[in-house]
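Sample entry was shown:

___
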Amino acid sequence: MMDRRPLFLYEDVMLVALDRKKGTPYTGLQYQFGVGAALLAELLLDRRLAVEGQNGKQLVTVVENRAVGDPLLDECLEMVATAKRPVPPKTWITKFAGLRRLKARVAEGLVKQGILRRIDTKVLLVFPHTVYPERDARPRRELVKRLKQVIFSYSADVDTRTAVLVALTHATGVLAHVFDKKRLKDRKQRLERLTAQSMEGQATKELADAVRTAIAVAGTAAEIVATSGR
């Protein structure tokens, strides 16, 4: 087994959002917003950014503009640092979710770590299409086990990163593809408590709410485009 670094939150989200056999995101998922929120969350947890109240609004501000050492996180940090003014979390989540080749960049990182494998195919024998099925099942299995232990227990001892991961995968609908929907419905109050758990404080709920808002905005935009094309 190769020596791997711990996965970043955005890699965790991508790993559980991909169908492990097909190597594509589960149908109907707005997974990119979960990845975008996880990028923001990682920078918050690493004290590079903070969410602060200004004039009655929650805005993202820079605490320390020192490189993390991860290309994707450093790109996101630079985007915030060079912005003209502070904006709400949902704005950055949407921007990060829309980064060029986001899925491929995250997946390729997991390929380099030996967790996924890359397969280049063609749709209708013409259009290039790349999928990322599982190579090593252990990281995802351990991740799902961690989520299961937290969601389907009553333990109050939940680490911050796991609480954030639960909040983001729940907000984007990823959990419904990992666990039985009825069992998740029965754990609604538990999921709400985990989402509200401090990150430290309000940030976890703020992120989850921002993800839901971003998904709703994206869904509305898609509906408008579809309607206008009729």
Observations:
- Confidence is low (pLDDT under 50) at residues 221-230.
- Residues 67 and 74 are 6 Å apart (CA to CA).
- The domain at 9-228 is CATH 1.10.3630.10 (yeast vps74-n-term truncation variant fold).
- The beta strands are 49-54, 57-62, 119-123, 127-131.
